[in-house]
Amino acid sequence: MGKGRFENKVVIVTGASTGLGPVMSRMLVDEGARVLMAARRIELVEAEAAAIGESAVAVRCDVTAEADVAAMVDVAMERWGQVDVLLNNAAVPGQDLYIWEQTLENWNATFAVDVTAAMLCSREVLRRSMMARKTGSIVNFSSVAGWNGLPRKSHYSAAKGSLRILTKVIATEVGPYDIRCNCLVPGAIETQLMADWLERTAAEEGITVEERRDAWFSNVPLKAKISTAEDVAKAALFLASDDARTITGQSINVDAGLYMVG
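User: That's the sequence. What structure does it adopt?
Assistant: Structure tokens below.
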């Protein structure tokens, strides 16, 4: 195990079975952290944790269920006695529907994972460890869809926009305890989820995947720089670390310049 910014720190990563979650977990352990990797699909997260090594522990957790979230934090507290960092990475895209097609089930299910779960997880780590110790860092994960919105994604766009406001409120409330909360706002990430979306929407529009990709990136200044999971993970670890000790309540874009806020 390497030495680094997270030496002697305990980190909880939700949504840790695929995509960005395992990448962040691996990088955290490389920098000295002990990581609790949580996800609903226990067989996947157990495999990822085993590949990382003894400093990573897998826990099955439905982050929309209060009992599961409490049990997840129990594991960290019983094993290590503290939680220093929470990465609220769990998310679902929901079903693509125009607003006139939108269903309450799709809307509520997306909000449950993409917003409510971040509240539940934050509440538990604050109550159980961070506030008493007067230290901690929480990073939420939004999306560029939460800025201007995306067609057929009213549920997802609204949820991801809400997450940025939740971040500001948490940061304001816990600042006096020397706890920080920030929000990372990725654009497109080179993952299987992105590949599937490009393929599906290209088929719906009757164009090639390459044409769909070109159209998506037509207004991106860094056209050749679609973010990798590692790019996003590096930004997340910076915000989580003491290197960002005076940064709180901020939403930081990692999107090759797609949305320039300020």
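Residues 204 and 233 are 32 Å apart (CA to CA).
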